[in-house]
């Protein structure tokens, strides 16, 4: 038996090697801003070959066209007649989906080439007919010195990775297959990446937004604290809500009791109301409570804890299966999702709580919380029952019931609908945790029965009840066996702006196995197709700030106000272990065109100290601009230089000299600290003057001149080693930093701060300005006020 066993082992090894080879062969599209390519909002007029997918928006395309026309005016007519097409091809490689590879720019810490990498055979032909063109395309003096030596010239313009050289990559089936689509690995698993958004949380059970235009998001911990985060992911030091003294939970891993749900009223901006769902206990009794709170009149980032109004309480016969989701529908009503009461098999009563319409357990409830306390219905509850609830008038049913037959619905969501057409809007999807064999996802509709305890997934659980003709239950849209996972965590249909390939994908997970999964509805059949989601391998997530691993216990999913999707997970599933994190889901294959997903958050007054978020795991940050002799060059910081390990040198127009190849182990650059600054100045200006760029949140960005004055300039100048600020420059005096985000606006400094981040400002990344207002400074070692009367 040893022989066949060895053959089987060799076969498995061969299959693994082939899978790894296929994985390594996948292309890695990337633009010069170190982000994925996109589909331009309209066809390009100049680099037309990249109209369907690439790295140029119409504005960049127009800039390349202007450069082309300027070349035509400088190049000799005879050369231009032969070489205009080649000039167009070379200029337009900035628009290629593989621009970062062509310009040898996958590593953000090294300078960019000034020309794309050329295949040697193509270069030899160009050298023969068009070598006089290159001096006008590149300012690199080394390239000009090699102009008379064809072999040296073409070696200089070659790439280390010849697969990506121009024009060979245009004809590569490997690099062009599935370009712009979400990429599956050798096992058919869709590859995604993550961006860490928060960490140090104790079993984060919910991430919600207030829908008030502020683009804050709120993360709830199982112990009963809710934290407010600003759009730049800075967290307020004081909790938004703290009901930890009332919440019933414990440090035991797997305890299902605690703070379980949070929802903001659809008119929160006007009425300040929000709703919470948490476990309560007294002696041997336990129950779940739904309460209303109001935000403080003095602080929009804090709840008035004295405003609690209990809306609903439901006794729990056991400690598990507590449900916990709260949602507001488009109809303005509050939807409450309850578990079946706990234990195994829903043993309560003849048919269990979930099939008992007179019980509120194992149900989806729907109530109107806009009823005034002075207008309660007959039972004295501070809410109304919507008149179109399905069991209104049924003496054997509670009128609050909207749907029944669920075991433990853990995380449900309403579909926002397709952004353009609204298709799918209002669909309600739920993950319902199974008993011993299956987990399921349900599409919940008014008045329907989802089968528990008669059925688990597609199979009968209680065979006698399952055979009852009056059951009339609805099968799930998807169910999976426990070999894939043992506790479903429902998610969301992606409807955000940033990642068009994900539109319509229902993304969910499993708490026990840590598996990420997805469903997509077929428009032709209405059936939901399953795809597993994996973390991108190889170079897939090789973008600044992205990671490809997460903590394994997936607790919950959430949407921010713009519709981007997050999930929360932990490495230790205890309500007292601060091992939880929040991750944003990223598609590395395609993004929306630049400028199409901008948000303008409504400003909020912050009365608590802010704790900036710095991702624990980040990749190198991109440099701001492509350096050329006519463009801006950064001024280094003479007083506090950034430690800089030795690295290979690179010729401005061509290849690296010596050192390690990309992707091999080697020295990494130390990332700047938050608040670091640099100046970018046009060529010819002396050091100490230029456009201000600040580093924060893992990236460089510019500062708007709203409120910009000499006190803010003094903070920058001192950081750069200058004694004084001679002048605060406004109106993009030293050029626009259009390749960078605007990170700071409305900066107000007293003058003694160590960095701009310590000054007052509108919030990291929050602004109402354009790059035409980029701020600058003129620094000096001499006191500009000396000698003035």
TrEMBL record:
Residues in the signal sequence: 1-27
Biased composition (Low complexity): 628-639
Matching Gene3D superfamilies: SRCR-like domain, TolB, C-terminal domain
Parts of the chain that traverse the membrane: none
Protein family per UniProt: Belongs to the HHIP family.
Domain SRCR: 677-780
Alphabetical list of InterPro entries matching this protein: 6-blade_b-propeller_TolB-like, Folate_rcpt-like, Glc/Sorbosone_DH, Quinoprot_gluc/sorb_DH_b-prop, SRCR, SRCR-like_dom_sf
Disulphide bridges: 749-759
The protein's name: HHIP like 1
Keywords: Disulfide bond, Glycoprotein, Secreted, Signal
Gene Ontology CC, one term: membrane
Species assigned in the record: Pipistrellus kuhlii (Kuhl's pipistrelle)
Keyword Glycoprotein carried by entry: yes
Keyword Disulfide bond among UniProt keywords: yes
SUPFAM superfamilies with a match to the protein in the record: Soluble quinoprotein glucose dehydrogenase, SRCR-like
Region described as Disordered: spans on this chain: 611-682
Subcellular location: Secreted
Domain of life: Eukaryota
Primary location group: secreted
């Amino acid at each position: 038996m040893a022989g066949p066993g060895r053959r089987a082992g060799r076969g498995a090894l061969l299959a693994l090697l082939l899978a790894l080879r296929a994985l390594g062969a996948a292309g890695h599209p990337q633009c010069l801003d170190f982000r994925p390519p996109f589909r331009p909002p309209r066809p390009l007029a100049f680099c037309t070959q990249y109209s369907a997918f690439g790295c140029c928006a119409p504005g960049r395309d127009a800039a390349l066209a202007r450069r082309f026309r300027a070349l035509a005016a400088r190049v000799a007519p005879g050369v231009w007649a032969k070489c205009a097409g080649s000039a167009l091809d070379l200029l337009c490689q900035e628009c290629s989906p593989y621009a970062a590879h062509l310009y040898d720019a996958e590593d953000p810490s090294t300078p960019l080439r000034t020309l794309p990498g050329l295949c040697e055979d193509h270069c030899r032909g160009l050298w023969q007919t068009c070598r006089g063109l290159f001096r006008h395309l590149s300012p690199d003096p080394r390239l000009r010195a090699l102009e008379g030596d064809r072999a040296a010239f073409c070696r200089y313009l070659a790439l280390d990775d010849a697969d990506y050289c121009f024009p060979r990559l245009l004809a590569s089936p490997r690099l062009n297959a599935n370009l712009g689509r979400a990429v599956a690995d050798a096992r058919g698993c869709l590859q995604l990446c993550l961006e860490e958004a928060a960490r140090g949380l104790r079993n984060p059970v919910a991430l919600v937004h207030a829908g008030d235009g502020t683009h804050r998001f709120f993360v709830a911990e199982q112990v009963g604290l809710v934290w407010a985060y600003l759009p730049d992911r800075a967290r307020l030091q004081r909790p938004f809500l703290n009901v930890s003294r009332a919440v019933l939970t414990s440090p035991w891993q797997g305890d299902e009791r605690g703070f379980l749900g949070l929802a903001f009223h659809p008119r929160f901006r006007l009425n300040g109301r929000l709703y919470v769902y948490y476990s309560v206990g007294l002696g041997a009794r336990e129950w779940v409570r739904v309460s209303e709170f109001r935000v403080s009149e003095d602080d929009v980032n804090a709840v008035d804890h004295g405003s609690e109004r209990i809306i609903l309480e439901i006794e729990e016969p056991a400690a598990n299966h507590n449900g916990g989701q709260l949602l507001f529908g488009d109809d303005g009503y509050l939807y409450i999702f309850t578990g079946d009461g706990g234990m195994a098999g829903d043993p309560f009563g003849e048919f269990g709580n979930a099939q008992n319409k007179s019980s509120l357990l194992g149900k989806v409830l729907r109530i109107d919380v806009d009823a005034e306390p002075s207008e309660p219905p007959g039972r004295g509850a501070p809410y109304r029952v919507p008149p179109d609830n399905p069991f209104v008038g049924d003496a054997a049913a509670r009128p609050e019931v909207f749907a029944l037959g669920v075991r433990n619905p853990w995380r449900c969501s309403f579909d926002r609908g397709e952004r353009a057409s609204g298709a799918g809007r209002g669909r309600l999807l739920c993950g319902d945790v199974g008993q011993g064999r299956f987990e399921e996802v349900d599409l919940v509709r008014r008045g329907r029965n989802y089968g528990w305890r008669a059925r688990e997934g597609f199979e009968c659980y209680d065979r006698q009840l399952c055979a009852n003709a009056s059951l009339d239950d609805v099968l799930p849209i998807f169910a999976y066996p426990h070999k894939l996972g043992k506790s479903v965590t429902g998610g969301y249909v992606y409807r955000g702006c940033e990642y068009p390939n994900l539109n319509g994908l229902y993304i969910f997970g499993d708490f026990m196995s840590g598996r990420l999964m997805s469903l997509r509805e077929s428009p032709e059949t209405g059936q939901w197709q399953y795809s597993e989601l994996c973390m991108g391998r190889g170079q897939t997530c090789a973008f600044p700030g992205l990671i490809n691993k997460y903590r394994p216990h997936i607790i919950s999913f959430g949407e921010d106000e713009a519709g981007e999707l997050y999930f929360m997970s932990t490495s230790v599933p205890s309500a007292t272990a601060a091992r939880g994190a929040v991750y944003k889901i990223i598609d590395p294959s395609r993004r929306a065109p630049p400028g199409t997903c901008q948000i303008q958050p409504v400003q909020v007054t912050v009365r608590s100290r802010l704790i900036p978020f710095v991702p624990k795991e980040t990749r190198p940050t991109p440099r701001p601009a492509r350096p050329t002799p006519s463009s801006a060059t950064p001024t280094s910081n003479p007083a506090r230089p950034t430690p800089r390990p030795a690295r290979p040198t690179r010729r401005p127009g061509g290849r690296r000299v010596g050192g390690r190849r990309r992707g091999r182990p080697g020295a990494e650059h130390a990332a700047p600290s938050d608040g670091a600054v640099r100046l970018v100045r046009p060529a010819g200006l002396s050091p100490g003057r230029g456009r201000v760029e600040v580093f924060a949140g893992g990236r460089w960005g510019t500062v708007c001149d709203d409120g910009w004055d000499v006190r803010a300039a003094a903070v920058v100048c001192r950081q750069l080693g200058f004694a004084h600020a001679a002048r605060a420059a406004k109106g993009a005096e030293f050029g626009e930093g259009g390749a960078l985000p605007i990170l700071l606006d409305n900066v107000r400094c007293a003058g003694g701060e160590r960095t701009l981040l310590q000054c007052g400002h509108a919030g990291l990344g929050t602004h109402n300005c354009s790059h035409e207002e980029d701020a600058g400074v003129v620094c000096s070692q001499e006191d500009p006020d000396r000698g003035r009367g």
